[in-house]
Amino acid sequence: MIKTTAGKAAMSVLKEWNIDHIFGMPGDSINHFMDNLRSEKDEIEFIQVRHEEVGALAASSYAKITGKIGVCLSIGGPGAIHLLNGLYDAKADGAPVLVLAGQVPRAKLGNESFQEVNLERVFDDVSVFNHRVDSPESFPHLLQQAIRTAYAKKGVAVLVIPDDIPSSTIKIDSKTPIANVSKSISHSDPEDVAKALLAIKYAKKPVILAGTGAKHAKLELAQFAEKIAAPVIFTLPAKGILPDHHPYNLGQLGQLGTKPSYEAMEETDLLIMIGTSYPYREFLPDGAEAIQLDSDATQIGRRYPVSIGLVGDSKTTLSQLTHNLDYQENRRFLEECQVNMENWWKHVEKEENEVSTPIKPQQVIPKLQKIVDDDAIVSVDVGNVTVWMARHFRMTNQKFVISSWLATMGCGLPAAIAGKLAHPEKQSVAVCGDGGFTMVMQDFVTAVKYKLPIVVVVLNNSEIGMIKYEQAIQGHLDYQTQLGEMNFAKFAESCGGIGYRVEKYEELETAFEKAALANVSVVIDVVVADEPPLPGKISFGQAANYSKHIMKKFFKEHELEMPPLRKGLSRML
Predict the structure, then answer these.
(1) What angle do CA 319, 322, 327 make, to 5 degrees?
(2) Residue 158: φ, ψ to 5°
(3) What 3-state DSSP class applies to 233?
(4) Distance from C-alpha of 61 to C-alpha of 435, rounded to nearest angstrom
(5) In the chain, where does the domain assigned CATH 3.40.50.970 lie?
(6) pLDDT-based confidence at residue 301 (cuts at 50, 70, 90)
(7) For 406-432, what is each residue's pLDDT tens digit?
(8) In whole angstroms, what is the distance from residue 14 CA to residue 23 CA?
(9) Could you point out which of 116, 262, 333, 573 has its C-alpha 20 to 30 Å from the C-alpha of 387?
């Protein structure tokens, strides 16, 4: 047995799990643990944020970017409460996150002490593991279990740490627990596999809808799509699994999606869902047979009535299916979808190549595209900006980071900070609206402090554009969506970074070129026109009430110089 303090033993656990970054804000009820972190600062870097919400959002983004657990820290009371938004983002998107929350010393618990809050109750809904450390001896063991559970259940694990615990002396076993998680791999029933093979064999117009569960199976997905002659549509958080100009990629689905994806769903006779439980039933086909592949059996048929469920790892199962299928000779449906997509890109490029002042948001994205590295980390905030990036940014090998299911404004900057810390050698870019950026802009100072050369693009229209158009489409008058004007370039300079203010189209390219060469944190403040995000409204997360008939009206009545898919198919039959 070895004599040490509970806090030092906890440091050993963190290092065993290769935890090298913790985001948070120090304070009175976590000070003893902070002193332990100070002693390990060469191996575990503490990133002091200006608001705990940013710490939690950064931890969630760190997990999404790296696959490693993200860690955030706070005092009890107000600090811990501030974490919740970022933690719900992690919960919603299945990101493993560890919370180390301070608490008043054990002797003061239950006495309505200063800043005492019932943290176990506060964190109960958001967590997959939620315990208060009641004895110094249990601290390292509970920490081990918290980390294991966060990884195993892909969620938030919380440890509430009374401030007297870390400094208490304990005896620990000299044997070090093994820091790994046993993975449970499910295999599909052979009968279900046989049914799926048969359905795919006889499908005339198969369509694949792929989500984040296919991220680690890029090659297998492409091979499967080629073998069965099926176009692939991606959910928003899965953008970039295949490059946007890949011949099988039809882009995103839904109100921020493409016309070809919409029409392919209208025509398909077999929907194959891979690693997604896509929530918007109104954009999925009516009456088509459906196969759903997911590693989590509880997701099968959860939101869409599937005919065949396959429980298993997407990489393994796709390889199995591809190996047992013949090459589909009839490729008419795929080829017409590809023609449709070529026409879509031509239409999009027309919008992008317009020259106008005020600048339109869709004109900004091509200039960004020119300076973004092939392996960059691109974080996108929530709002109209999501539409412009989903439709106009052509992913190659970049990593796309967003708050998907929670859809919280303010996610862009914290993700860019996390991306640069996770991969210092890579370019990290955030694209935000002025509404989302102003929610967390104080932490641009954090990027400057830690010398993180990130680029933040702010599409500045002085309003909450998404909400304005939500109100309009519901028949309401615009109310309280104006934000007022702000010069974010001057703000960046006041923080110690670089700011570029762009008000004319002719200034765009130069600003982006200069930002790409900077070795400090940069804000490009682009003043953009009040432009509705076609087809008028984005819908994901809590903004999910926009009806399908609006989408139909846009794609059927909006002037797009593109023949409908059905007409093209009839010509080929």
Answers:
(1) 160
(2) -120, 130
(3) strand
(4) 20
(5) 2-172, 355-537
(6) confident
(7) 999 999 999 999 999 999 999 999 999
(8) 14
(9) 333
Q: How far is CA 82 from CA 53, 88, 109, 317, in A?
A: 5, 11, 21, 41
- Helix locations, 474-559, DSSP H: 488-494, 508-517, 548-557
Average pLDDT estimate for 99-111: 91
The answer to whether domain 2-172 has CATH 3.40.50.970 is: yes
pLDDT surpasses 50 at 537: no
- The DSSP annotation for 58-118 comes to HHHHHHHHHSSPEEEEE-STHHHHHTHHHHHHHHHHT--EEEEEEE--GGGTTS--TT---
The average pLDDT across 186-203 equals 89
Contact of 406 with 431, CB cutoff 8 Å: no
* Residues 503-523 pLDDT 10s: 999 999 999 999 999 999 999
* Model confidence at 484: pLDDT above 70: yes
CATH 3.40.50.1220 in the chain, residue ranges? 190-342
* Strand 21-24 versus strand 249-252 pairing type: unpaired
Residue 492 three-state SS: helix
Taking alpha carbons only, the member of 289, 245, 296, 255 closest to residue 274 is 296
**Residue 515, number of CB atoms within 10 A of its CB:** 22
At residue 449, the 3 state secondary structure works out as helix
Confidence of residue 538 (pLDDT cuts 50, 70, 90): very low
Exposed, middle or buried by CB within 10 Å (0-12, 13-18, 19+), for 394? middle
Structure tokens at 409: 């404004």
Q: What angle do CA 315, 317, 321 make, to 5 degrees?
A: 120
Q: Provide the pLDDT for residue 5.
A: 95
In CATH terms, the superfamily for domain 355-537 is Thiamin diphosphate (ThDP)-binding fold, Pyr/PP domains (3.40.50.970)
Higher-pLDDT residue of 279 and 170 is: 170
Question: CA-to-CA distance for 355 and 404, rounded, in angstroms?
Answer: 32
DSSP 337-405: HHHHHHHHHHHHHHHHT---SSBPHHHHHHHHHHHS-TT-EEEE-SSHHHHHHHHH---SSPEEE---S
- Say which residue, 357 or 62, is predicted with more confidence: 62
Distance between start and end Cα atoms, the chain: 78
Report the alpha-carbon distance of residue 327 to residue 339 in Å, rounded: 21
The CATH homologous superfamily for domain 190-342 is TPP-binding domain (3.40.50.1220)
Higher pLDDT: 207 or 464? It is 207
